[in-house]
Amino acid sequence: MTNHFACPEAAWLLLLPFVIYFLLPAVKKSYGEALKVPFLADIQQIKTLSGRGLILKPQVISFLRLTVLVLVWCCLVLALCRPQWVGKPIPVKNEGRDILLVVDISNSMSEEDFEYKKRMYSRLTAVKNVVNDFIDKRAADRMGLVLFGTRAYLQTPLTYDKQSLKEMLWAAEAGMAGNSTSIGDAVGVALKSLAESAGKLENKVIILLTDGENNDGSLSLPEAISLAKEEGVKIYTIGAGSDKEVFFGGLFSIPVDKGLDEKSLKALAKETKGNYFRAKDVNSLMQIYDKIDKLEPRTADGRYVQEVKELYPYPAGAALVLLLLLFLLSRKVK
Question: Is this prediction's pTM over 0.70?
Answer without folding.
Answer: no
